[in-house]
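Technical note accompanying the year-one report. For the benefit of new consortium partners, we illustrate the data format agreed upon in the data management plan: each record pairs a sequence with a structure-token string. No post-processing was applied to the example shown here.
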Amino acid sequence: MEVQEAVGVFSCCRVVWRMAPGLFKCVECNEVADELHRDYSNGILKITICSSCKKPADKYIEYDPVIVLIDATLCKIQAFRHILFNTEINIHWKLCVFCLLCEAYLRWSLLQGSQPSNDPADIIRYTKEWEFYCMFTLAALELAVFCTGVLFILWVAQRCCGSSLVFTPLLKALLLSSYGKVLLVPAVIWEHDFSPLCFSLIRLFVLTSNSQAIRVILNCSRWLSLLAVCGGLLLETWVAQALKTLQVCSQDYLSML
């Protein structure tokens, strides 16, 4: 069910929702558009032309969802504007949980692989669900730290510019743009010698998508979005190392008892 929800993110992207005038955005120039298309009789749709750039306000309305997914995977800013501004997607929390499950499964599988044993009876350890739950909790904590670091840096930058920051659309954009984490599962299933490289490339792709989503929401420079993402990544890495050190110290303490 969760897999269907995750795939449905891009399937529903072509459904444009109606709202109050002035809340749509042109995918080409980011200008406000009162409407994206007009629905005439007999199912005839006419895409609105942007008054600023003289291009179709949202060309993705008539595109297949697969095309939207491909352009989003290529991190095209037009596709991100279409998804974040001109469509109604309210499954970002479900997608977030699904991505955390994928990341927890990766960590759990690596944990099991790092504990070799010659005892056949030790296969029971694979059924220890609490280890998987611990990995899920750890992944959720690191994601929360990453989002907090990104939002804090953006908040400071906006305050320095004399403007306010709305956290809700930014958080939604960060969660949606982390969809690349679902690639961790096939990377684990099709295990090979290049798996560590695949994990690094997936991480880089997710961070690039996060940066692009920030640019779309704030209409800011690429450098600010990269600074926010790198700051959040550094904070997440520091917290992860601190937790790992704490775990090692606690194990050493328990072994001495």
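Partners are asked to follow this layout when depositing records. The longest helix spans residues 222-256.
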